[in-house]
Design goal:
Bound molecules: S-adenosylmethionine
Structural class: alpha/beta
Shape: globular
Radius of gyration: 20 Å
Number of strands: 10
Order of helices and strands: HHHHHEHEHEHEEEEHEEE
Oligomer: single chain
């Protein structure tokens, strides 16, 4: 069991490492949720064959490839197509009708990871006849996952699970029409990303860059501490048009945030909110 002095030293070493990473590379993990951050840092310490957090600090500040490995550990990229299918079914039901009233739609998929969520949104929009007038800005802090997203090749052995998700999400076509099998990958149709811009954007430090009718940011803020969550809520509030829709992940909420009063709930269970002020 580490003593109090050890744990205080560890806290200081973590703070120094995060500050160093921020100053040197500009990646700001200083306000990420502490427990999960600590676990991931130690995993990287051991994976690098090191023994201390300060040893890791020295390595990442002198070796960019070590920083890239750490970035992958810290930016937790797990995702899937039509993840939480009830969300997409609810989006069709509660959000799509109001989107039909706009001649042009700007959608921000923040924290898009390897793109499975973005392709799912594109498929949904195509099936409801809104894709041609939509532009999706799909952003993530991590360039490596964006490269994968641009390729649009997802593991073939996932397609059975994704097909089931798609059906539960209210999909109306044969899911297999959207991809062709290539070796062990499923290459999704390029037409799904014709109206998608993939770009790096850091929710912790980058500014608003457009005004959106919909912001989808699921399973990202869960890794942030309260102050960073509030910062991101402010950014989203600033970036949403009036009556724009905010979509969060299953374990995330607008409740208890300073912007709670600015939204009405469209679907509490599926975390869909409409900006009203
Ligand atoms: C668990 S994935 C969620 C992917 C997808 N939204 C979903 O729900 O399946 C979290 C993503 O957030 C990204 N992320 C973490 N911190 C970020 C930040 N400060 N700015 C932008 N993206 C960030 C990670 O790189 C990762 O791809």
């Amino acid at each position: 069991m580490p003593g109090r002095a050890d744990s205080e030293r560890e806290t200081v070493e973590i703070a120094l490492l995060l500050e160093g990473v921020y100053q040197h590379y500009g990646f700001d993990f200083r306000n990420y949720a502490k427990a999960s951050l600590r676990r991931r840092l130690w995993r990287r310490v051991h994976a690098e064959g090191l023994h201390t957090i300060s040893g890791l600090q020295e390595r990442v500040l002198h070796d960019r490839s070590a920083m890239e490995r750490l970035l992958l550990d810290l930016s937790i990229n797990v995702t899937s197509m039509f993840r939480d299918p009830g969300f997409f079914a609810s989006f069709r039901q509660h959000v799509v009708p109001s989107l039909r009233t706009y001649p042009f739609l700007r959608i921000w998929n923040a924290g898009c990871s390897t793109g499975e969520e973005t392709y799912s949104l594109a498929i949904l929009l195509r099936e409801v006849g809104l894709y041609d007038r939509s532009r999706i800005y799909a952003t993530d802090i991590n360039e490596a996952v964006l490269d994968q997203a641009r390729l649009g090749v997802f593991p073939l052995d996932k397609m059975r699970e994704y097909t089931q998700n798609y059906i539960r999400a209210g999909g109306t076509q044969a899911f297999s029409e959207y991809y062709v099998a290539r070796y062990d990958g499923a290459q999704f149709s390029r037409s799904l990303v014709e109206n998608v811009v993939f770009a790096q954007h850091n929710l912790a430090s980058d500014a608003a860059f457009n005004e959106f009718h919909v912001i989808v940011c699921r399973n990202v803020m869960i890794y942030f501490d309260k102050s960073l969550q509030e910062h991101v809520h402010r950014l989203f509030h600033e970036s949403l048009a009036r009556l724009g829709v905010l979509a969060l992940g299953q374990k995330e909420t607008i409740r208890f945030s300073p912007h709670e009063e600015s939204y009405e709930v469209l679907d509490a269970a599926e975390k869909l909110y409409r900006k009203v002020r």
